[in-house]
Batch of 4 targets.
Target 1
Amino acid sequence: MRGHAATALPDLNQTELSRLERIKAVEAARVAPEADKQRRAPRREQTADLVERGRSRSGGRAIVASNARRYCCPMRLPWDDDDLKGVTAGDVLRDPKQYEGRTMADPH
């Protein structure tokens, strides 16, 4: 529809905000098991590949963890919260739950 101006929606009131937060919490809990499974999938696949090539499972896990630290961990992330200054990608990979819900700065 051409020529129609965008209509701004009013801000949510406190009751609506509370309801939204409850909905978000319920949905986060509902999808958490699958989300965790999907986050771990690449490491499991890489470990399985190494096991197929003759490594032990524990050895494969150690290699995958070492590679993750070496290749992506030193990068500092652009957080928009000063108390996270200096947190690296590796920190997030080691304890992703600690950073859930935190936001990054817009790089542009």
Target 2
Amino acid sequence: MKIEILPDLIFYRYDGYNRITADEYVCVRETPCSYWIVPKFYISAKPRLIRKNAERSYAYPTKLEALVSFLHRKRWQIIHLERQLANAKQAQHMANRGQVDEEAVWVPLDTEFIDLK
């Protein structure tokens, strides 16, 4: 099956950890309300739907919009990780001081429960 690419519609998404890259996506189908995009160098991938005029999107028509989205995603990632780190430090501090709930029961994930009815 041959996939037809709409050449004028290129979308961008920044991603990365050690190295930030601008991934390019091409449009393979356009509807009145959305675009169907695939990675530029992996045309046989499953198309991803992105909505026109959406506030947030997976990929954007300009590199500037994609960069703003990347910075926004990383800002939220930092907020969530800082919260997790604070919770872990608090739990470690409480455990070091002996503030452990002795009545709490830990149940292994592979435990099979029997019906006592």
Target 3
Amino acid sequence: MITDRYKLGVWQNPLNPKASDYRSFGDMMFDLKSDPFELTNLAGTADTAAIEAGLREAVHQWEQAIPRALEVDSPSGYYEGV
């Protein structure tokens, strides 16, 4: 989720069981104004907890709004959409 100031990256459960699962690395959040090179991960910090909660809610709303097309079973195990 990217706003004019913040960027939140949330790892998702991989659709393909053979794909790499990066969730153990943890989520990432950056202040694009003060850290344009995204060097300082703010995810889980007290100073930005309210901002992170708002971004996570936006991610949740987006997930509820998109079609579940990515869960379609395909021979390759990957999304083969148009």
Target 4
Amino acid sequence: MSNQGASIQRMRFFVNQEKSTERVTRGRFEIERDGDIAFLEYALAGAVLELIHTEVPKSMRGTGVASSLAESALQWARDHRVMVDVICPFVAEYLTKHAEYSDLVLR
């Protein structure tokens, strides 16, 4: 799979939590639950996925949704063979506990 033209297209799929929807749109990985949306902002520049900022509404905090967003973004990067530039402090912390993604991170 070539990195050329790798862009994140809109898609929807269901995650483990009942009545949750995960989707990727231009600029954000999102999880929606009961009308609330948690998101991880990104920018895709060539073969580098910049993970910029994670935001989770109060109603969704403590449910693991931020970790799900980080995992989704990192898995997308692996699947599309792009490197990751981690700007978001939450994703940086997530990576300290998930060394399986360390090969994706720009040093």
